[in-house]
Design brief:
Helix content of chain A is 43%, strand content 9%. With 362 residues, chain A is of the alpha/beta class. The longest helix of chain A has 26 residues, at 21-46. Chain B is α/β, with parallel strands linked by helices. The N and C termini of chain B lie far apart (46 Å). The mean pLDDT of chain B is 98. The chains are: A alpha/beta (362), B alpha/beta (324). Bound molecules: thiamine diphosphate.
């Protein structure tokens, strides 16, 4: 782990944020759930049962370990691979799957591609698709929280913002704009970069000439920390330190060193651009196996527990799938809802056209 | 001659131009090693090397901004924006800079370059892999805007675009990237910008369309024919400069115009076409100019086939002008 310009108020010692055994087990189970869910969904995609899927295989520790450092009231601005933060934060799996199917059970009304989950109940806004756009928005929400605190003179601890993105996103102007605002206005936000080494086919070293992503924070006047993103204990510890710093009103940039084990998405074929040897090397540092070894060495895990966990997860996914799959698409008229709070005449006219209730217009 | 799809024809065209003009470079996200997410630039890295076939960092503003600088200095960039939905981080560079260099420098500087970008829906791509943003660019003085609908045209129009003195936004209808097939000569040829093509002749209704909607319009025209209505389908091919002669001569012949595009209706290109027909062919019209377009909503995911104009909806438009 390299720390760029260690700030005095980031406590990375590890003592303060030790995890209890049951918490560690919970994190291990969540990571395993995410892994199995991704496998099942990619399978459904290949069978044509869902249209698209983006897995976070290999990055489970970065997603789960960091989301666990948040409180319920905190907000999450995810990228493509952090949807599962919502599951950890209590969102029901069957509804999550409805988003993937884009059917009438989807709370987002089938408007977005799969893997663009969002719900107010868990304070997670939806990623658009445009890489990097969430970064200044996250700074803005954090700014709102700061205003909220100042305007209400509340002594209650205020929420903070967790903003996720890949290392590719750091090339977009929005990254620099968001980081700059966060630095200038001192905003309670954690910028969490999942450096999974690949931005579709472009490798990390072609994305930026900076030796680390973390060091980019220095230019904006706040600390950047690079960590082992496959070690859930380290992810949790470092993220927790940054979250506490955000609670004190200050931004931090985190860089989780990890690896995209699979394809970019179901539309991609990594054999065209990267050496499979590389994935094999990283597989030795699989975040889930690394955590399991820890549990086994502590004597709290064995094959027996693993088998029962696998059965439980498999049943859980199957049950949720039965609830979610096969429901019809949202009704046609929902196409016209939510463009505005109130529907203007021209949309009413177009809705009538689609529903065949008004043939006068075309 | 060889049978090619749109992807193959464009690949072939880019290759020919890079062989012919050593100052061309191809740049964009994932275009070198991967050959582009739609594989249009497959094999170019092997043939022309990493100096001329460049995987850039993930930044559309960076790609377009640097392409402008390259073009000012005399390099010929062929830019790929992975999806036209992602062109907006480079929008300022296109609208405020690229489009205006010639004008604001009193004709001293220009930025001849092509921005190729897949557009349109029908691939289950949701909001951000489906939009049709052509109107924003047609509305910007200083840009030429092209959208082919078949492989033969794609090659000829691309070769004209890449040799044009001005910047060209070259939209590629991704829905028919593979489906549109046809014979394409292996050798160099160009199709001038600003010339429409009559895809099907008819004398009762004119369908004005472009891109993937040409396919839907031809299907609708076929169905109309079975009902005894003769529909002419005009593929505009270049949206700016528009082939106004072709539009007017067809509309004056038929007296009825239906415009089909998948972009939203309000301020879509259909609005401009409709106004032009009104201004220049009013006495010939038997019915109001009619638009069959995408709805004025963000592009949806689950309901994309309700959103997109279909042959059935186009037929409704034909019916409307026939029975006005
Ligand atoms: C503005 C924009 N440009 C291009 C794309 C196409 N695209 C989708 S994901 C991606 C790579 C993202 O890489 P990174 O930020 O490292 O995240 P990762 O996918 O590796 O998690 C690209 C180029 C996009 N979605 N948005």
């Amino acid at each position: 782990m390299t720390i760029e310009a260690p700030p005095s108020d980031l406590d990375l010692s590890g003592e303060a944020y030790a995890l209890a055994s049951e918490e560690i087990l919970f994190l291990y189970e969540m990571m395993t759930l995410v892994r199995r869910l991704d496998e099942r969904m990619l399978g459904l995609q290949r069978q044509g049962r869902i249209g698209f899927y983006g897995a976070c295989t290999g990055q489970e520790a970065a997603v789960i370990g960091s989301a666990f450092a948040l409180k319920k009231k905190d907000w999450v601005f995810p990228g493509l691979r952090e949807g599962a933060a919502m599951l950890l934060r209590g969102f029901p799996l069957s509804l999550y799957l409805c988003q993937i199917f884009g059917n009438e059970g989807d709370l987002l009304k089938g408007r977005q591609m799969p893997c663009h989950y969002s719900d107010r109940s868990v304070n997670q806004v939806s990623w658009g698709s445009c890489v990097g756009t969430q970064i200044p928005q996250a700074a803005g929400a954090a700014w709102g929280m700061k205003f909220g605190k100042e305007l209400s003179h509340e002594s209650r601890e205020s929420p903070i913002v967790m903003c996720y993105f890949g290392e590719g996103a750091t090339s977009e102007a929005d990254f620099h704009v968001g980081a700059n605002f966060a630095g200038v206005f001192n905003l309670p936000v954690v910028f969490f970069c999942q450096n999974n080494q690949w931005s579709i086919s472009v490798s990390r070293d072609r994305q930026t000439a900076s030796p680390t992503i973390a060091q980019k924070a220095l230019a904006y006047g706040f600390p950047g920390v690079q960590m082992d993103g496959n070690d859930i204990f380290e992810v949790y510890r470092v993220t927790r330190a940054a979250v506490e710093r955000a609670r004190r009103g200050n931004p931090t940039l985190l860089e989780a060193l990890t690896y995209r084990m699979g394809a970019h998405t179901s539309s991609d074929d990594p054999r065209l651009y990267r050496d499979p040897q590389e994935a094999e090397e990283w597989a030795k540092r699989d975040p889930i196996s690394m955590c399991r070894k820890r549990l086994e060495s502590q004597g709290i895990w064995s094959q027996k527990e693993q088998d029962s966990l696998e059965t439980r997860i498999s049943d859980q996914i199957s049950r949720a799938l039965r609830k979610a799959e096969g429901r019809p698409s949202p009704p046609g008229k929902t196409l016209f809802q939510d463009v505005f709070a109130e529907m203007p005449w021209h949309l009413r006219e177009q809705m009538a056209l689609l529903e065949g209730t008004d043939n006068a217009c075309v | 001659m060889a049978e090619m799809n749109l992807i193959g024809a464009l690949n072939n065209a880019i290759r020919l131009e890079m062989r012919r003009n050593p100052s061309t470079v191809v740049m964009g996200e994932d275009i070198a090693k991967l050959g582009g997410v739609f594989r249009v630039t497959t094999g170019l890295l092997d043939e022309f090397g990493p100096e001329r076939v460049i995987d850039t960092p993930l930044s559309e503003g960076g790609i377009i901004g640097t392409a402008i600088g390259l073009a000012l200095y005399g390099v010929r960039p062929i830019v790929e924006i992975q999806f036209s939905d992602f062109i907006y981080p480079g929008y300022d560079q296109i609208v405020n800079e690229l489009a205006k260099y010639r004008y604001r420098s009193g004709g001293q500087y220009s930025c001849p370059l092509v921005i190729r970008t897949p557009s349109g829906g029908g691939i289950k791509g949701g909001h951000y892999h489906s939009q049709s943003p052509e109107s924003y660019f047609i509305h910007t003085p200083g840009l030429k805007v092209v959208m082919p609908s078949d492989p033969y045209d794609a090659k000829g129009l691309f070769l004209s675009s890449v040799r044009d003195a001005d910047p060209v936004i070259f939209f590629e209808p991704k829905r028919i990237y593979r489906a549109a097939k046809g014979d394409v000569p292996e050798e160099d040829y160009t199709i001038p910008l600003g010339e429409a093509k009559v895809r099907r002749a008819g004398d009762q209704v004119t369908l004005l369309t472009y891109g993937a909607m040409v396919v839907e319009s031809l299907e609708a025209a076929e169905q109309a024919n079975q009902q005894g209505i003769e529909v002419e389908v005009v593929d505009l091919r270049t949206l700016l400069p528009l082939d106004i002669e072709a539009v007017l001569s067809s509309v004056k012949k038929t007296g009825r115009a239906v415009i089909v595009h998948e972009a939203p209706k309000t301020c879509g290109f259909g609005a401009e076409l409709s106004a032009l027909i009104m201004e220049k062919a009013f006495p010939y019209l038997e019915a109001p100019v009619t638009r069959v377009t995408g709805f004025d909503t963000p592009f949806p995911y689950a309901l994309e086939h309700d959103y997109l104009p279909s042959p059935a909806r186009i037929l409704k438009g034909i019916d409307y002008v026939m029975h006005y």
